[in-house]
Amino acid sequence: MEESKHTTPSVDKDLDEETLFIVSQTFKALSDPTRIRILYLLSQKEYSVNEIAEKLSLGQSAVSHQLRFLKNLRLVKYRRAGTTLYYSHDDKHVMNILKQTIDHARHH
Amino acid sequence: MEESKHTTPSVDKDLDEETLFIVSQTFKALSDPTRIRILYLLSQKEYSVNEIAEKLSLGQSAVSHQLRFLKNLRLVKYRRAGTTLYYSHDDKHVMNILKQTIDHARHH
DNA sequence: AGCATATATGAAAATGTGTTCATATATTCA
DNA sequence: TGAATATATGAACACATTTTCATATATGCT
Predict the structure, then answer these.
(1) How do strand A84-89 and strand A47-48 relate by DSSP bridges?
(2) Does pLDDT of B9 surpass 90?
(3) Residue of B29, B10, B94, B31 lying closest to A96 (CA atoms)
(4) Domains of chain A from N-terminus onward
(5) Is B105 in Cβ contact with A22 (below 8 Å)?
(6) A92-106 and B92-106 helices cross at what angle (nearest 10)?
(7) Which residues of A touch B11 (CB under 8 A)?
(8) Can you list the positions of beta strands (E) in chain A?
(9) C1' nearest to CA of A29: which nucleotide?
(10) Tell me, what's the pLDDT at B96?
(11) Residues 63-92, chain A, touching B (beta carbon < 8 A)
(12) Using CA atoms, how far apart are residues A10 and B65, in angstroms rounded to an integer?
């Protein structure tokens, strides 16, 4: 009975492979400027693929590929309206972390 | 006078290049399993380069390269004791975000 | 100075990532 | 069904990242 009585969670346990994988994937999603810009846009409201491409001056294909990446991690979701897919964010925790880090970066 | 009266910071402003760069670099630091393991280790206490290499079964050179990466972003610092360098974390905000995300990943 | 130990560094190799291009699929409408 | 529009997909390319290997540098000790 020596360790972690009422200490902060996450310290003192070791990192199992699965946790490590999830954490690294999550941060990888946030490590690319294009994906950050997409998520930041989606933090405001839903947008279609073409709207995202236009707003950010990116190719339709590039946006689609990145959305698939984000979708696989369940960071975004979409709803269909005819042939148009409206994407929106789908992970409040991750969006919150992105927001925190943007604020932190801005405060210099 | 239409937007962002008392809304959350970081929304509604656009992302300037510099902020985008800092944010993406920060997350890139956290996106690699080796660096995550190093930072996680350093969240507990300071360790020398060789201690880190042994604890994590990594080559001395690989650890040194990653520490330089983290040092450039001012995420870690070191103190010298003879020929030994003891590294420790140096950014509470980033360590907090790492901790949050590990907890989040563990809760599935 | 010479030797031992701890760490850093540069280049090469192996692997991973992001964009583009061409094309496929899905939906709507006439 | 056929045309039009929106999005997805796969392959190829360019570029970036991570590790390894060999070697350099720094410090302390005798």
Answers:
(1) antiparallel
(2) no
(3) B10
(4) 18-106 (1.10.10.10)
(5) yes
(6) 180
(7) 43-44, 99
(8) 47-48, 76-81, 84-89
(9) C17
(10) 97
(11) none
(12) 26
> Which has the minimum average pLDDT: A11-25, B21-35, B50-64?
A11-25
Task: Say how many CB pairs under 8 Å bridge A and B.
Answer: 97
With an 8 Å Cβ cutoff, is B3 touching chain A?
no
Chain A residue numbers touching B102 (CB-CB < 8 A): 10, 15, 19, 23
Rounded-to-integer distance, Cα B62 and Cα A94, Å: 29
Mean pLDDT of chain B: 92
Q: Does B4 reach chain A within 8 Å, measured CB to CB?
A: no
The kind and range of the H/E element at A5 are: none
Could you tell me if A34 lies within 8 Å of chain B, comparing CB atoms?
no
Instruction: HSE, CB side, 13 Å, CA atoms: give it for residue B34.
Output: 16
CB contact burial A81-91 (16+ within 10 A = b; e otherwise): eeeebbbebbb
Phi–psi pair at B73, nearest 5 degrees: -90, 5
What is the pLDDT at residue A46? 98
* Residues facing residue B48 across a β-bridge: B86
| Residues in chain B, overall count | 108
Under-70 pLDDT residues of chain A: 1-12, 108
**pLDDT on residue B6:** 59
